[in-house]
User: Fold this.
Amino acid sequence: MNFFGIGPMELILVLVIALIVFGPGKLPEIANTLGKSIRRLRMATTELTRDFSKEIVEETKGTGKEVNANPDVTAEKEDKEEEI
Assistant:
């Protein structure tokens, strides 16, 4: 199991060092702040991707070209076509 390219033993080592450096009282607060920051970043990137895809679809309506607004689906289709 890899978590961000870090194995379980390395993850435990990082957590123990964080516990030593920040102490048991401050560590939950830091984890909470980090979690909120990651959540905001994900929401912002999702919103940006949605807006970008929407703009692409609107811009290509007049050209007669078909555009898939979901880049993940396009990538999956390309992968399947390469396998064939």
Summary: The first helix runs from residue 8 to 60. The radius of gyration is 21 Å. The mean pLDDT is 80.
